[in-house]
Design goal:
Order of helices and strands: EEEEEEEEEEE
Distance between the termini: 40 Å
Helix content: under 10%
Strand content: over 45%
Radius of gyration: 13 Å
Structural class: mainly beta
Shape: globular
Oligomer: single chain
């Protein structure tokens, strides 16, 4: 069973940076498409960014483009989300998502990112 564990959330001021990590176990990480999804309080889940396992194609939401960067390390079974120039609107719980080649979705427990002055 594929398991995902996120790390790196916290409380930061506007303009700060954070790096989230998601460690994957129990599956072939190199064949998982990975994504970060976030959910702010009282709002629906929002796609942030994704990276494919094949040729590592990247997709990024316009709301974070130029500020957030996704990357993966297949040797460490880890996907990262580098977040720069954080704003109040980035406050949310950030979830790591993995999708297998068969279309099965796996989710982490989420990590809270709070941007506040």
């Amino acid at each position: 069973q594929v398991q995902l564990v996120e790390f790196g959330g916290g409380l930061v001021q506007p303009g700060a940076s954070l790096r989230l990590s998601c460690v994957v176990s129990g599956g072939d990480f190199s064949r998982l498409n990975m994504a970060w999804i976030r959910q702010a309080a009282g709002k629906e889940r929002e796609f942030v960014t994704a990276i494919s396992f094949h040729v590592q194609k990247i997709y990024t939401a316009d709301s974070v483009k130029g500020r957030f960067t996704i990357s993966r390390d297949n040797n460490r079974n880890t996907v990262y989300l580098q977040m720069n120039n954080l704003t109040l609107e980035d406050t949310a719980t950030y979830y790591c998502n993995a999708v297998s080649t068969s279309g099965t979705n796996y989710w982490g427990q989420g990590t809270q990112v709070t941007v506040s002055s």
